[in-house]
Amino acid sequence: xxxxxxxxxxxxxxxxxxxxxxxxxxxxxxxxxxxxxxxxxxxxxxxxxxxxxxxxxxxxxxxxxxxxxxxxxxxxxxxxxxxxxxxxxxxxxxxxxxxxxxxxxxxxxxxxxxxxxxxxxxxxxxxxxxxxxxxxxxxxxxxxxxxxxxxxxxxxxxxxxxxxxxxxxxxxxxxxxxxxxxxxxxxxxxxxxxxxxxxxxxxxxxxxxxxxxxxxxxxxxxxxxxxxxxxxxxxxxxxxxxxxxxxxxxxxxxxxxxxxxxxxxxxxxxxxxxxxxxxxxxxxxxxxxxxxxxxxxxxxxxxxxxxxxxxxxxxxxxxxxxxxxxxxxxxxxxxxxxxxxxxxxxxxxxxxxxxxxxxxxxxxxxxxxxxxxxxxxxxxxxxxxxxxxxxxxxxxxxxxxxxxxxxxxxxxxxxxxxxxxxxxxxxxxxxxxxxxxxxxxxxxxxxxxxxxxxxxxxxxxxxxxxxxxxxxxxxxxxxxxxxxxxxxxxxxxxxxxxxxxxxxxxxxxxxxxxxxxxxxxxxxxxxxxxxxxxxxxxxxxxxxxxxxxxxxxxxxxxxxxxxxxxxxxxxxxxxxxxxxxxxxxxxxxxxxxxxxxxxxxxxxxxxxxxxxxxxxxxxxxxxxxxxxxxxxxxxxxxxxxxxxxxxxxxxxxxxxxxxxxxxxxxxxxxxxxxxxxxxxxxxxxxxxxx
Length: 690
Known about the structure:
Layout: H1 8-25, E1 30-34, E2 40-43, H2 55-58, H3 63-66, E3 68-69, H4 74-84, E4 88-97, E5 102-114, E6 120-129, H5 131-149, H6 156-167, E7 174-180, H7 181-185, E8 199-207, E9 222-224, H8 230-237, E10 241-244, H9 256-265, E11 267-277, E12 280-290, H10 298-335, E13 346-352, E14 360-366, E15 372-379, H11 383-401, H12 407-426, E16 441-449, E17 454-460, E18 466-468, E19 474-476, E20 481-482, E21 495-499, E22 505-509, H13 512-520, H14 536-546, E23 557-563, E24 571-576, H15 582-597, H16 601-621, E25 626-632, E26 635-642, H17 662-669, E27 672-677, E28 682-689
Parallel strand pairs: 17-20
Antiparallel strand pairs: 1-2, 1-6, 3-4, 4-5, 5-6, 7-8, 7-12, 8-9, 10-11, 11-12, 13-23, 14-15, 15-16, 16-17, 17-21, 18-19, 18-22, 22-23, 24-25, 25-26, 26-28, 27-28
């Protein structure tokens, strides 16, 4: 005889009925029986969320009146099961339970019930409360999103905005992010026990509260936190604060504006999380829950601390970047010229776009014979090392320009210098991260000559100036792209010469993208004639205003130069016959011209001596044609040109030597002197201050 007695089927039916009754009255799993009209027939009142509910109160009611789903229509779900017979399996819904009401999450399985003849009897629903499980999953997903998205940008404001967008509305109904002002500037944050009155800047605010919730403090405002409050307490000991909000909270009296805002938002729970790293306070995240949202619990607090730790690390990275950039920008400002240096016939203005890369530089140098050198470049890499390398290259260019080299020859010499610097970097210790950074630079070097109305330029890399003629025509100077400075390429540099009539504007930039944009959409450059009598800086400003916001060239260095006509009566040119008797006639012409210009007697006398020595030297050692030119500009220049390419050298003559003192005399009388190549031959020049 079996354990069920002599009537096993009867006992089985009885046991099954007993088990079903136990499930409906004692099991914590929710069981629900709904008839074909979607009316409740029976429920398990032993389930935690159904305790205290009388079956008589809900029997016969529509399912939608009993089950208050937040994100779905319960009758639509059950009707689909009734109509199709397809079970609804592991479907997650949110519903309001209790009188509070409190939102819970359930996993439901719904099955169509049929009689022995296939008649549809209704729907059986099994519901399991998975609120804690879903919350844990949601916390994990949110933490993953924070780690993935927050900190991709090294801007504290963007970091705060990214964090707030993730936390609202999934974790909090309202979030504010405030960062200490010292961190925004890149300074070291204060340690724990931050002093009262520490300045903070609001970097983010986001709200999901129904209705307009006005900010007490706008994003970007810098203020002192009211004290004592949970905010100052969290900054003092770097511990989070979970606070119940209400009109009787004593600390709200210290911040009446916040009290009014909390009341209007129906806030009931506050979680203040310090953004701390290595016992240093960087800021605060304030999270509010309002209305029907549950109060914060210990698991929320633990999650918020993990979020705060990651955010603090991102803010510290941003602070370190800001500090390094600030130092590099300071070094850059010290290494760049403070004001344009050019001849009077070339008006120049410098423009360093917002956030200029420390590796970008610009310079102008007054050369002999009223000429001006213009250079713009950019060193690879960022930060302090780029600024230091930029300073080295700028100094090298300044030194090389004193030798009156042609642009292509100067870049060739500069390329050698950059290659040596790159070789020194390659010999750094293996552990030095700088060793892994390539040292290269782009550079364009041009020389403007107002006497010929021309500009000669050469480029290393893909930098090329724009030429804007007085009629508004904008063209890109077709400068051949030479090898980048410091690269292993050994191709020669080439120079190009272009005419630039008076009133033309030259635009040099360190960013090819910006140059290309201005060439295609010149904007203010096309109306350059309108700026003829206005300060050149106004054209610089208008160019900045015309750039699109998201162009990405906000780190370019720019020089804008406007050419002026050289007065014809300020330059005298005399061709000379290869006859020694021409020297005396030349002295008279020189004296008469200097008298016409009103040059003082001492300078005029010295100029006659200089002219005599240079012409004598050309007659003795040079080849015709020989030409003397006097130029009265910022300085008084005397130059002699001949067809011989051999350059003279200064030497000290002995006591009994009859010659060899010509250039020595010139060097003593002149402020500066030198030799430069000129096709054909050479030019020897000497300058005196007026």
